[in-house]
Amino acid sequence: MNLKPRELKSLKITVVFLYLLFVACFEDRRKEYEPYNGVQKWVEGIMRKDYYWYKEMPDAKGLNFFTEPIAFFQSLLSQNDGKQKNGTHYYYSVLEDLSETDTRSIQQTDYSYGFEFMVYRMGGSQYGALILYVVPDSPAGKIGLKRGEWIFEIDGKPLSETNYATLLGGEATKFEMGVWYGNGFVPIGEYTIEAARKIDDNPIHYYNVYRPANDNSKRIGYLVYNHFTAGINDEDNTYDDDLRKISHEFKDKDVNEFILDLRYNNGGLLTSAELLCAILAPESVLGKSIGYVEFNDKHNPQTQDLSLDANILKGGVNLNLSTLYVLVSESSASASEMVINSLSPYMKVVLIGMQTEGKNVGSTTYKNDEFNWELRPIICKIYNSEDKSDYENGFIPDYTADESLDTNINSFLDFGNPDELLLNTALRLINGTYKEGEDYATSRSLTGKPVPVHCSLDRKATNGVIIR
């Protein structure tokens, strides 16, 4: 076919146009979509590689990468991640938008008034907040709030489901304090508290040594340890160093029995848990493995040994104990449970309190500075030296004692008071005056008795033992 010059030119233009159109159709335009699905792509990539249950994730071809990030993230999660609570499944793995929240780092330098509390429904529409503990040198500490006191009004308004979260932190306000006598609050005064601020919540909340009057050979160490945190920030080790220092105090006083209070400790760093184990374990365990963490089968090596080598103590001292009494509650979780599980093969561990959470997994943190998101997935499972990790439903106490019962909250005593419910149980077990069959936990009736409904400690819970 012979084409005229004009026709040939027209054909060339058409071919070039079609070629450019074809190329444009297949041009890599992924960069244009990044503002809309960049977070999702980042999350899916990490989860596919490091998530402990990655094999249970849906196939990538069936995912909608333009779904809102949190919903997209939750569509990836296994039902083995987390558990049912109050009829709802809650996951341990977490994704957070850092631009919308003042996200807490590993450290417990927290924006708050400086106290932890449990909200109770007292019957009908009446609510009260029972103070669990107060952080020294905090707004709450400055005005003299104490463990065992009640708050039943905030800024002149009765405490309720809609305003109790104000107690977590806010502007300067007024608290109406009182005592509960079984059928109502009796006011004891109004306190003005300054605005919430950053506080330094040292996990070593209280410690002491006791000598039973009926047995001078026993010297009982007691430590209230509220979270497994190395220091005031991720680069600091002040709290771990404080733990090492008090280990010497216990050693110098010839402590040979020990009560570890983890009732409000819902977890933290693996390294801090290892340090505590090294202090409390029998001396013969030093240098040995206390367990391991197991990653998914993409990780090489798949396991990481947990051993109590000399470097962990770093100036601390081992107490060479043979028995450990641990005070626990529903809030005791993660690294707290790891300590119990890790030491059990080597010493007698006696649990006093209530059934623990059952968090036998570990997590780590991934940050995306470009999009300002933080991902904390479950990446491993925690085992002891006997290959046991069967506490996903929590540890059941050897001796049951529930300080949250209405029969006990009227006498909610200070830490260290020998008559305080959980401590007293441990002391009597040690000195031989405990009567078998005693049980300080009974079922609640629905006849107006106080029922715990919210706990401020829940916001501090780590989603697993933190693996750095």
UniProtKB/TrEMBL annotation:
Please spell out the taxonomic lineage of the organism that makes this protein.
Answer: unclassified sequences, metagenomes, organismal metagenomes
Q: Where is the signal peptide?
A: none
- Protein name in UniProt: Putative CtpA-like serine protease
Enumerate the InterPro entries for this protein: ClpP/crotonase-like_dom_sf, PDZ, PDZ_6, PDZ_sf, Pept_S41_N, Tail-specific_protease
Q: Which GO terms describe its biological process?
A: proteolysis; signal transduction
Write down the species: termite gut metagenome
Q: Which UniProt keywords apply?
A: Hydrolase, Protease
Q: Which GO terms describe its cellular component?
A: outer membrane-bounded periplasmic space
SMART domains this protein is in? PDZ, TSPc
Q: Could you tell me which PROSITE patterns the record lists for this protein?
A: PDZ (PS50106), PROKAR_LIPOPROTEIN (PS51257)
